[in-house]
User: Fold this.
Amino acid sequence: MMHASEILKEVMKVGFDEAVVSAHNYNSIYLKIANYKVDSIVEKRGTMGSLYVTKGKRIAFTNIEKLDIQSVRASIENIKRALGNTKPKEDYFGIASGKFKYRSKSIYDSKIADTGPDKAASLANDLISKVDASNLAGTLYLTEWKNELATSNGVDASAKSTAARLSMRIFRGDFSIQDTVASKRLSGIDIRQILKSAEFMEYINAKSKIKAGTYDIIYSRPSAGALLSMANTMACMGNVESGSFFTNKLGSYVADKDLSLYDDGATPEGVASSPFDDEGYPTQKTKFIENGKLVKYLHNYSTAKKYNTKSTGNAGLVNPEPNMLVVEHKRKQSIDALISSIDRGILVTNIWYTRFSNYLTGDFSTMPRDLAIYIEKGSPVFAIKQMGVGSGIGIRISDNMIRMMKNITRVGNDFAQSTSWETIGTYYFTPSVLAEKVKISIA
Amino acid sequence: MNEIEEIAAYAISLGLKGSFDYVEAYGEENSGTSYAIEQGRPGGASVSKSSGIRIRLIRKGSLYTYSTNTLTKESIRKAFRFRHFNGNFTSLSEEKVEKADYKVKERIKIEDSYKRFFSDLSDIDNLLGSTGVKLRGVYGGIGRARSYFANSEGTEIRSNIPYISAYISLIVSEKDKSRQRMVQVGFTGGYELFKVDKINSRLVEEINAMRKVLSDGSDLSSYELSKIKNIVVSPEIVGIAAHESIGHPSEADRVFGREAAQAGTSYISSNNFGMKIGSEAVTIIDDPTIKNSSGFFLYDDEGVKARPKVLVEKGMQNELLLNREYAYVLGKKSNASARSDSYSNEPIIRMSNTYLKKGDSNLEEMISEARNGIYIKSFTEWNIDDTRSFARYQGNEAYLIKNGKLDKPVRNYKLDISTFDFWDSIELVGNEFELFPGDCGKGEPMQGVPVTMGGASALLRLR
Assistant:
């Protein structure tokens, strides 16, 4: 099996201006839980490479099927043909140069790497046994991977890492709740976090319907992350150029003055973190919204050069890509205190189907899923009947990203790494957040 | 495919020698090219060629799937270390042993069209530029998927499917207002199906209409919106509604809870099979056998022969989308709804081409019958709840109907409606038939498969 640096040598014999070679292998297990039992297991193993080249500002990509010389030569022939089929990208300014020092380290947990399908099933059955519910569904995901990166501009880097994720939807009576824990270590899969979220179902016994109107919304951690992770996605320069709610807003206030947002690819505990981005530039933690003001867009080397700034470690070889979102707010309170501060509101525990009618304006709607609790005069009053399992109806949130971020006046003190099925593969460090005056429609 | 077929035969022989109840092997060879052009600038060409194999095993009722792109006997043997787990018991329905080798015909070979495809996408981008659309992206992919399926029961299927897809995103602005639109085209077949002139004509028509909506459109008050009871919906709106509110809840893995933590549940349950969903005018079909459609296949990824599935017949729930696992649960035969987006993922229950069966009214008649109401031609934002009971279809292009004729455009029409109100209020169904391609996401890991949705237009009378 060839290393990325060996493949690079072969590729550069052809006379490309630049090349980026990555060699990647992974072992993953997806264990499905359905109807309170382990349902099935999928084990995936792969070894593959990718090749990116430029010549006279023409850009081409290809994969390398096997990391051997025959595959490499076939990929070189393919990419030569691909270059001939396209035209120069005139606003392309190259890949990052240099031997970089990577301060961020990858976390590799051999306990994850050593967990095969049989052991994963035992682990899942142990986790299932800890849940008291009328029904239970979910996924246990375990993965280990190794990535090598070599570029014609001096990068020769490698990283290996592991990750684990447990997602559970817990049904009790008329309601359900879903939460996910994720970590680079097996020990980070702490089911207590999910069980604590399930305690919301014990908050209140009453159930009733709400009417359409304007409410203050507490978005629990996974739903807050799913919505706000649109922010670092839309701060990436390719999206800014294509039409994002941050286009032409640099230097403007786009969020509450106590809210700051970061894009972070470097925090070792971050499941989506890596010491380097796709062109080998060191990842970093970039504050792009500072005290409510949009202070920075996210760049790779080429877009940074185009706009006379520095890369933020967000390559994407053509367009920058987001790393992980970190949400920081000066006004933190316990969830109980947040609830106490609301005159008329809703605690939303999960969302899905977030759809934008216009990315340029930031107008969107999203569907709460699972338990939602109506709050009045500082107290939880009832579980919203429209959100009951099999109620046959639902509620919908309609809002605008900028308006919502300006109305996030407080956050919870439950900051943690999170994800949701809505944004699977995207991770964020966020607390629950309180967004004021949100429109709700019902069937 | 020889290498894959040899490895597949080896895997099945290992399974038959071991104590496995069922073994199947599914191998794939994919090759293709994709391009992106954003704001008039080429983003690069991507060429791919990949292959791999998936082995699915059942041992003592435990279902296990193993995938790899390392096509060696040593790699495959790793799958057979699997014992079984304490969990759900999986059995498969008995199905006919099939032998088939099918290929989609093409007049212009995909492999001869890579360069022309970039040129055609550039033409589309140039057209957008010439109409003053600055914020735009043109994306396209063409290629060929060849697959080989074999199982321990003797079924063997080979397929060879060329495909083309393109996706155009654009934002049309007038002064301080803007509207966003995504247009998708897709086919299975030769390059002769990709007709740039037709796509460009459609784009010009849509851009002009969006400008008209921005300049002449009105924002109706909540009161005015609530008074709209007669709604004519185009095949595009009917299609997304058929897909989201009929197709998805008809997937048996949702009905029986397997997708509860991912793609969700369903308003259909074993307690209400045969329930009334819509009016007598409503018959909804999922048919993978439609030639040249994005959702085309003749055998599913469990080797079962495909056929049209009548999900709703004359308003009544009729048939679930089944794979072999849930066909067994229901004591039925599979209706060939198992699909995977890659050799590396498990086959799960999916739609193909889902549509409202056409009726005998034409659009003018329906607008005339509506008298006063609204016509929704295309949508932007849409979403639906966990059980698929409450949806939104937000109008992109929508027009008031006054005295039986189309009137001024409306900017802010959102149809927030329950599934049952939507389908039960259908009084007339159009006599046209149109399918719109899309990518449907489901499962964990997320699998996106090409589908189409559409059918005929319809007149809804809300009560």
Q: What stands out?
A: Chain B has a mean pLDDT of 96. The domain at 2-216 of chain B is CATH 3.30.2290.10 (PmbA/TldD fold). The longest strand of chain B covers residues 41-59. The two ends of chain B are 58 Å apart (CA to CA).
